[in-house]
Amino acid sequence: MKLGPGKLLSYALWQLRRHKLTTCCSMSTKAILCPGQGTQYIGMFDDQWSKSNILREIVKTSKDILGEDVIGIGNDGPLSKLSLTKYCQPAVVLSSILTFEHLKEAGDLQHASIKAIAGYSVGELSSLYMAGCISFENMMKIVRVRADVMQHASNAHNTGMLTIQGIPKEKIQELCHELNSLQTDSKNHVNIAIEMYPMSTVIGGTVKILDGIVERGHPLLKEPSIKLSRLPVSGAFHTPYMESAQEGLNDILHKIEINTAPLENPDFKVYSNVTGKPFKSTDNIRDLLVKQICEPVKWTNIIQDVNLMFKEKKLDSILELGPGNNLQSILGKINRRAIRVTQSLDLNS
Fold it and tell me: CA angle at residue 174 from 296 to 332, to 5 degrees?
């Protein structure tokens, strides 16, 4: 069949994108990183998924379970809607899964080559799916409930999140304790939410306290080298402000099956955000997933362990699958050599 100029160009661009994905992947040993909320962007879903029966079925199933056209919201926005927790969490997870399945279908990624999988925040669910611990249908059911209950918890309090760079985690913990002791309202507090990498920590709390921190009134924050940046979120995730979301998440988790058999392989790691260590087959994964929304993400521990695997030559390459390149950037803060073998890929790559 003869193709017109427009279709020829479209086909050529598709082949070029596929070549870029193919060249990054072989039977070399790999770690996979799955991003979390905040990496979403308008146009995040290329039409690549529509060319595959497998990917089309994934999109259809996700739409049936979510009751929302996440692909449409991710492509067309508006950004204000996509940035809402109830939409961006499933959008980010779906992007990771579609990229993962696309690479597998193309023969560019073999499961036997994967030695470690780590997901950041909601990306932890993506990692458990990729590991074979949770089916796609059950994962999307969990994501739907998780996003809804966390959105509801966020709406109940005027809270936010703030990144502090240039101060050890221990000093930030002391700062949080001190600020909390000064509050007359017990509902007004701040806590460590994410341990990103050494000297970079995210805290979550009321906007009132965060505003005070940004004004740099505390002696600990006077040094110009210390960087403060607000996160574009409307909730204090991974802090006690999410406690009201735990019951709903716990309910759905106890209705789905979790397969722990893949975790019995001593040469295969899937990391827990709560412990900062690989899940064990004996772990109560449901409890850890419930705790995760209220407890700090120990990403520093996770990424340091992945880096150690690379230094010990147990990994040849690292793939960040999903929107953005945040996790690749964090890895680069720890080891510049590791970033040379790391690629961030989604269907737009």
Answer: 50
